[in-house]
Amino acid sequence: MAEKPTSAAADQLIFPFEFVVPDDLVTQYSNYVMIQNGEHECYLLFLEALPPILMGTREEIAEQARKVKSVKAKCVARIAIAKDMAPLIVKTIRDLGLDKGSGDQPQVQEKKQT
Description:
This protein is an alpha+beta fold. It has a domain at 32-101 and 108-112. It has two helices and four strands; from the N terminus they run ββαβαβ. The protein has helices at residues 58-67, 86-95, and strands at residues 32-37, 41-49, 73-82, 111-112. β1 (32-37) and β2 (41-49) form a beta hairpin. The chain is elongated, with a radius of gyration of 23 Å. 0% of the residues are buried.
């Protein structure tokens, strides 16, 4: 009787995913993304930055704007992904044409995880 060839692939079982999105999953709005680079993973931080509320006459608004030191950006989700998934995500974004954006250049801030 002939032996069946063995390989790592033949020993593995492959099961399809059944994607489940819970009905109560809350959708968050993000208008800013920050990526933190770890040793074996990348962290994607999705933030919502809201402009300050400025009211009054044109001069009053200008005065209020001069006093603004920063704009708070609240993190609404932090996702850790395996580094080997990052190229697939970038390719998918490009394939969908989502890298075209509004023409504004994103602000790049790199922060290495220690």
